[in-house]
Design brief:
alpha+beta, 178 residues, 4-stranded mixed β-sheet
Length: 178
Amino acid sequence: MSLPLGISNLRFKWRTFDDSSCDVVYALHVFEHLNVTNASLFLREAHRVLRFGGVLRLVVPDLRIIAGQYLSNSESENESPAAAEHFLYQINLHRESTYGSGWIKYLLGMLQGFPHQHKYMYDSASLKKVVMAGGFCGVTFGSYGVSSRISDIEQLECTKEGVLSLYLEAEKPKDRAG
């Protein structure tokens, strides 16, 4: 499997890739950093560049599990402030100063489109809905390092994320009729 590089900013059309030129579009903890408008553009571009029957694999933090952990950790009478801080850290909405300050942070933010904090969070139902609205079908959820559609998934997922995640796979319909 070759891993092409070339997309530097997902807020714009993916000019590096021709229509129907890719077998797989894989995004590991990227999709949640896009606002709703840019997520829609991402899905349109993924659909455009995938061949018919091509696979979209998205890995995002699982809001339902993370929120459940927060609720479980904060149910005691002596609710710990650490539970809220841990929750905000897990969903990447913690304090701005976490990434430092100054001109280097500003420059990196400008170059990367200020992607560090999450713009949206998904559970399985909301992620499936947005992906299907993007024209994909056959949505399934799996786990780390397991795919029935991508034969060499281990080349993509070489290290397991520390965040509890959803692993979604979907297909571009195999023909124009869907």
